[in-house]
Amino acid sequence: MKRTNKNNEDFKVKYRNDTYNIFSFLNNHPGGVNYVRPYENKDIDQRMKNTNHSDAAYYLLKEYVQGGRKNLKENDDLETLVDWNKAMLPQVGKLGEHYKKWVLSPVDRHLRLFENPILENLTITPWYIVPLIWIPVTFLFVLYGTKNYYSHTKGSSILEPAVCVALGLILWTLIEYSLHRWVFHMEPSGRSQILIYMHFAIHGLHHKVPFDSRRLVFPPFPAAILTFLIYKLLSFITPDHFLLLLLAGGLLGYVVYDMIHFYLHYGSPSENSYFYFMKRYHNQHHFVHSDIGFGISSMLWDKVFGTVISLKKLAYTIKW
Known about the structure:
mainly alpha, Flavocytochrome B2, Chain A, domain 1, two-stranded antiparallel ribbon, globular
């Protein structure tokens, strides 16, 4: 991506008499770099008002003030409530009633979840680990599931196992929506430290540090636990010869979902493409409407349950 300045580490703007170097934010800006580029070395106060930037956007801007957040004139910085030099999980329970506002106020940093290095490493996952682990597992489920299906039904057609896998894939889209809406976005009471710990560990941290690429996909260890729990639940209501095939479809859906989620944060989809729309949609969920727009791979269930985000028509194409 070409910059308008010669210094590869500077892209400064002015806001309320302070200078902000937003170079590291350019590729992450929800509105695209082309919306920002004309304002290099200019005042953005009126522009941000005219475009109705969210509270989250104004809060995130503080990350880039020249000299650091400590130089800001206002004294309402929520980051003074925690110590970023220490593991964050043990601290969030003490935030109490401040937790919801703090966790929905994004910052551009890496976050340490656990002090213990083994536990911490289990929570950090490069994107390629997900398909590397789960695609072979999915293949094995299809292989053994198909054999099990044939042994029960005495059939030989590939169509019926394929339909079972497809049903599992469709079922995953509902699980994806349900987990994101009712589990990941539960609202823990400020008086319940345990619920705050749980919420932050499974999803709150992603809203707090949305640009931390190490935390954009679901780590394999908790994913394995979740897979086992779903398997046990389905085993009570699903015939044995369907179970592995349904689970294979669900795992395939999960892999697709996680890869789409990573791409929506770090990819540069072309105009009028499906992912261009979904990237705009997901950015709105992160920075404007955290209480709706729960679909990641699609907005199907948002339409069904009435939680769709309505995207505004733009004057010109976003370039990420």
